[in-house]
Each structure stands twice: as structure tokens, then as C-alpha cells.
Amino acid sequence: MKFWRRALAVSAAAALCLSGCGGDAGSGSKTEQTGEKTEAVETSEETGGGVLKFGAQVTDTQLANLSPFATSGTYIEWYKLVYEQLLYFNEVTGELEPALADSYEWNEDKTQLTMKLNEKAAWQDGEDFTADDVLYTYNVLKENPVFDKYALWEKLESVTADGETIVFQSKDPFVALPEYISQIYIVPEHIWEKEDAATFTNSEPIGTGPFIWDTYTTGTSVSFHAYEDYWKGAPKLEQAILMMYNSAANCTLALLKGEIDCTTGTIAMSSLPEFTSKENAKLQTYSGLNNFCVMINHENPQLADPAVRRAMVMAINQEELISKGEYDGVLPTYITWLPDLFGDNVNKEAAASVSYDLEEAQKILEEAGYEKGSDGIYAKDGEKLSFTYYSASGAPAQQMEAGMIQEWLKALGIEITPKLATWAELSQLAQNGDFDLLQNSIAFPPDPYAALNTTFHSSMTAESGSPTPGTNYFRYRNDQVDSLLEQASSLSDETQLAELYQEIQQILAEDCVFLPMYNGSGHIPYYDGTNLTGWTDAEAPIFSTANLINIRAAE
Q: In which family does this protein belong, per the annotation (predicted)?
């Protein structure tokens, strides 16, 4: 029986812990919310009485659909309180850990994955967690391909159960399957089978996680109370409250004023020095499963020209972007996509093959037949290089960084029309291909094959105007990349896989698929010791079950 292996060769994790004078964070009192009113109530000494207040930039629109199957435009961080996967990928340690499955084992040729389920887990309404819930969840993905964003059912033949044992059968070796599984939340069949999963918005979520969805106060907050029968043990906190803010600036202000204990990653980076100067203030950073970039729509005829894309990439001063925009609090996104989290699988030589050089960028355009007009804009065959550029509204750092990138592109000789959209709108625009250039983040599974396949294989995209089945929002299509990924999908030899990953990344660097910004998964600000204590930032993400069940009221 196989237990938990190290999923990646290297994990890049660090905690920046600075303390100074002053500072206050959150509230240790439990709150009960109804409508617009917030009332203080007595806390239980038996449970510790702690209340976690965590902040995020989130709108009511992002909470209109609470389905874990939702593919875009939703705020997903709350899932970590309520729902669980069969396996959990720990981004700090780089390891797969048990969750709703206790263990797994492969057959010899990696076409059959057998999992033993966690028999201690139970749904928050008291119903038993069973294999039927797993079968139902994966059948929803099969029957609703739009939910199967990793196209698992293109590789799977069946998912079956024998008692509390689950068997995943694939057509060919599927080495990345455990990492994919770590991204799929399991839902309760006894609730969902009564609904149409394709349209069900799940207004009263029930999961197996450590906290139970309680009260949603429109535009203000969502409260959760501790699930005392949680299989890992009852949380030491009594309550967790998501405080909703309409901008990163307002969320950051609440953090600086001590009105919240942490955020799920939101912080105006210009305020980072002020935050880290406060007493008990800490910032957890780690390389993670989320890259910020400027997406390029390859279906735009001008952007389909590799010379234009390469010139644009070379016009961006990424080092200055990270220094001034993110105060060096993040790691770079590579033009080869895979972050340092993937260790030796990262093609560092290819990643360094394209660098900032404005003069060379202009030379590339001119050699490709573009001529600069009197207005300073390059054109070819009477068509100016002129594009719309979408970025997030209500996000000061994003807007500042968008301004920097737009100015660099203008200096190159490209006309830019800036446009703002909410995070939810950006997700929809990206998925449907309704953009020229769009600045946002893209998440990916914790496996090099999975990360490359879901983002760059042509089967993971769609014609502009139709939603993508995966996260290839670039509308990128390269037959050679497809072929190499298809070869990788049926291999289990790590040396052969590594060679294919290196080759794929070399092609991505040559094609300049997107404008790289930074890896944005893990920079979590929090206060340790003011109102709450017990965080373990070296062992797991701050906003993870490992921390959520162990943090407690500070004495």
C-alpha cells in the first residue's frame, strides 16, 4: 500500500517574519450575524473561544454560485473551510497528503489507481461519507465536460467502487492522476442528486471540512462555525468570518488597522513595509500553483505573429515590475511557465533565453516588416499594432503594474487602449476569448505534466466566443507541443518525462506565448500572537486545514 510521496523534486518556501512596535489584529469575540446587524455573543471556553477574521477582495457576484464545480468568476478560497479533496497538495512542503482518501497504490503500468477511503470522515449534516459520494462527484465531471477543466475523462475509462475502495482506471499510464485528484472537491451525493448539477448554485453548502457555512451577509461577510465532529478533531477556534472588501486597498487598510487577523493573499504591496513593521506581523511566501501574466490572444491576427509577441516580451522589465509593483514579495513567472516549485523539471536555460531589451525588441519588429509611423506606433500593411488591455478594477497594485506594462509597450511602439473589469469579469473574458491582452492569474495542478497540458495543449482551448475546457486562455495551438504532451501522458519513466518537459518549455520560450509577470500563489500576511496563535507557516499554507484546526485564541 502506497502512502504519501513527495510530489515534486523541490519546494520553495520561506517565511518573512518581522516585528516592531504597535499593531492590533482582529477580534477574539464570537459574532453572530443576521441581516445588516452584527451582535457580540458569549464564546465557549471549552472550544477556546477564538474567532478568525480573514479578509479578501470579494464581491457578491463572486458568491452568487457556491458550487465547487464552478469554473470561473467565483471566489474559491472559502472552499478550504468547508470542502475536501481525496488528496491534499501542500504547497509549502511540496507533498501530497491524505484527506478523504487514506492511501493509494498503483498497478505496475500506472493505468489503475486504487484508493482506500477515509472512514472517519462524515458530512457536516451527519450523513456518512461514502464511496458513492466520490463516484457521484466524478460522474458529474463526466456528464458535464465544462466542469472537467482538466479533461480527466479524456484519459479515464472508469471510476468504480468496491466497498470503501475507489478504483480509477485509465486508458494509458496516467502518472499525474494523483495530483489532478488533489484539485477536485468531493460533494455529497445525498444533496446533489436531487438537483441538476449543471445549474445548482449550492446556496447552503455542506462539506466534510472543519468549518460549516453559517450566515452570508450581503456585501459584508460570511460566517462559519466550527464543525465539532471533524475527522481530524474539532477546530480550536469557535468561528471563522470572511470579511468582504470591494478593493485590495480597503482590505489592506483593515489589515493595517488590526480589524482582521489575516487575508487569503490580498495585500496592497505598497503597504507591505508598513504591515511588516507592526508587532506580531508575519508574511508567509512560497512558490505556488498560480502564475500572473498578461494573456495574449493568439487568434488576433497581429498577435499571432511570433515576432510581435517576442518583441512585447522583451519590452517588459520584469525585474522592475516585481521590485516596484510587488516590493520583491513574489517570485517571477518564467516564459517557460513552470515555477521553481517543480525543481529540476524547470528549464532554467530556456527561462533565461528571453530578457528585457527594448532596442532589440524594436529591431525584431522592424526585421519582421513593421514600420514606425509619425505617431510612434508600428504598423504593417496599413494595420497599426493596436490592442485593448484588460486589468482588474479596485486593485491598486494590479492597476499600477498594468500602467507600467502599458507604458513599456507604448515605448516599444504599440498602441494600447486600457480597460478595467472586475475579477469575475476578467475570468469570463479570458474563458471566452473576448480580449486582445488581459492581465490576470492562471492556476494549475501540482504536477509538471498537468501544469503544461491544461495550459498549453490545444484541446484545452476553444475558438474565441466559446468557453475553454481548460486554462489555455491564450488560444495557443502548436502541433509539436501537443505531440510532446501526448507522449508524456502515457509515460511513467521520470527521466523520459523530464526530457519531454525540457523540450516543451524550450518551444514555449521560442513562441513567447504570454507576457510573464510573477508567481502569485503564496504571500499571506497574518498576525501571530495578537489575537490568535498556533500558526505553522513552515509546515503548511497559513490558510489550510492544518492551520485552521490548530490556531487558537492567544492568551
A: Belongs to the bacterial solute-binding protein 5 family.
Three-state secondary structure string covering 150-161: CCHHHCEEEEEE
Q: Which of 396, 362, 369 is nearest to 383 (CA)?
A: 369
User: 154: left (phi > 0), else alpha (psi -120 to 50), else beta?
Assistant: alpha
* Number of helical H runs and strand E runs in the chain: 17, 27
pLDDT at 490: 83
Residue-number span of the structural domain to which 45 is assigned: 13-81+199-287+522-553
Kindly tell me if the per-residue pLDDT of 17 is higher than 80.
Answer: no
What is each CA distance from 162 to 115, 159, 169, in whole angstroms? 10, 11, 13
In the numeric block, the cell 468496491 is attached to: 162
CA distance 352 to 275: 33
Cβ–Cβ < 8 Å for 196, 111: no
- Rounded to the nearest integer, the mean pLDDT of the chain is 90
Residue 49 lies in a domain: yes
Query: Do 131 and 269 share a structural domain?
Result: no
| Confidence (pTM) | 0.79
Contact between 538 and 285 under an 8 Å Cβ cutoff? The reply is no
Give me the residue label for grid cell 472586475: 422
Residue 543: all three cell numbers together: 490558510
The three cell numbers of residue 430 are 479570458
Beta strands 437-443 and 552-553 are: unpaired
Within 10 angstroms of residue 312's Cβ, the number of other Cβ atoms is 26
Q: Domains in the chain: how many in total?
A: 3
Look up the CATH number of the domain holding residue 282: 3.40.190.10
The pLDDT score that the predictor gives to residue 33 is 32
Higher pLDDT, 200 or 397: 200
Alpha carbon 486 to chain centroid, angstroms: 25
134-190 pLDDT per residue, tens = 999 999 999 999 899 888 999 999 999 999 999 999 988 999 999 999 999 999 999
Cell numbers given for 113: 489507481
For 53-80, write each residue's pLDDT tens digit. 999 999 999 999 999 999 778 999 999 9
Residue 136 sits in a domain of what CATH number? 3.90.76.10
Residues 214 and 337 in one domain: no
pLDDT (tens digit, 9 = 90+) per residue, 388-429?
999 999 888 899 999 999 999 999 999 999 999 999 899 999
Pairing of β 415-421 and β 386-392: parallel
Of residues 126, 234, 238, 172, the one with CA closest to residue 449: 172
Would you give the distance in Å from CA 96 to the centre of its chain? 17
